[in-house]
Amino acid sequence: MLLFRSDRSHRWRTLASTVSIFLLAILSVPVLAKEKARRKSPSPSPGEQGLTNIPLPVGHEAKGLVLPDFDADGHLRAKFEAGTARRIDDEHVGFKSLKITTYTLENTPDLMIEMSDSVLDLKTRVLASKERTTIKRADFDITGDSVEFDTNTRMGRLIGNVKMVITDQSHFTGKAGQ
């Protein structure tokens, strides 16, 4: 009779440990999935700076603020360098002497955008300026009286007294040396 009890006790311990391992495996799947999604997410952690997490309280100003802008895959799309940045309200940040460098998928500089006075809407991620703005690339320079630049789509619109100087036509014609 003693062997029977010990055998039954052994079976219960084996069954209990198997159930524990099974429950641990089931419960850890959502945690691992969340961790994997968090690592893939382009949003910065609370300590990191970015266009969605600008570390400025409302009404405060920072000098020499540099903010990276990452795409959904974690690649650097642009770098924002502000002479001064001021949080206007919860949804807007104002910049003075802003220089933006955009990058290609190969991580090489593409556009250089210079704005003297601008405002970023944090919800729409549209950067707008009513001041003269200059956009430069290796093959052209373009300026305009005001600009709206969507940081998500990387598309912009220059308005008023737009002037473009093409320095290298080969990018536009597809033929070198002509």
Structural features, described:
It contains 2 helices and 10 strands, in the order αββββββββββα. By secondary structure, the chain is an alpha+beta fold. The protein folds into 2 domains: 1-40; 61-173, lipopolysaccharide transport protein A fold (Sandwich), CATH 2.60.450.10. Strands 1, 2, 3, 4, 5, 6, 7, 8, 9 and 10 form a 10-stranded antiparallel β-sheet that branches. Strand 3 (92-103) and strand 4 form a beta hairpin. The termini are far apart. Residues 14-49 have low confidence and may be disordered.
Please describe the topology of this protein.
Elements: H1 2-40, E1 61-70, E2 76-89, E3 92-103, E4 109-121, E5 126-129, E6 133-137, E7 140-144, E8 146-150, E9 155-159, E10 163-166, H2 170-173
Antiparallel strand pairs: 1-2, 2-3, 3-4, 4-5, 4-6, 5-8, 6-7, 7-10, 8-9
Which properties best describe this structure?
2 domains; globular; 10-stranded antiparallel beta sheet; 43% strand; 2 helices; alpha+beta; lipopolysaccharide transport protein A fold
Number of strand segments? 10
- What's the helical proportion of residues? 10-25%
Overall 3D shape: globular
Oligomer: single chain
| Spatial extent as radius of gyration | 27 Å
Q: CATH H level of the largest domain: which superfamily? A: Lipopolysaccharide (LPS) transport protein A like domain
Alpha plus pi helix count = 2
CATH top level of the largest domain is Mainly Beta
Largest sheet: 10 strands, antiparallel
Question: In what range is the share of β-strand residues?
Answer: 35-45%
Q: At CATH's second level, what is the architecture of the largest domain?
A: Sandwich
**Domains counted in the coordinates: how many?**
2
CATH topology of the largest domain: lipopolysaccharide transport protein A fold
The secondary-structure class comes to: alpha+beta
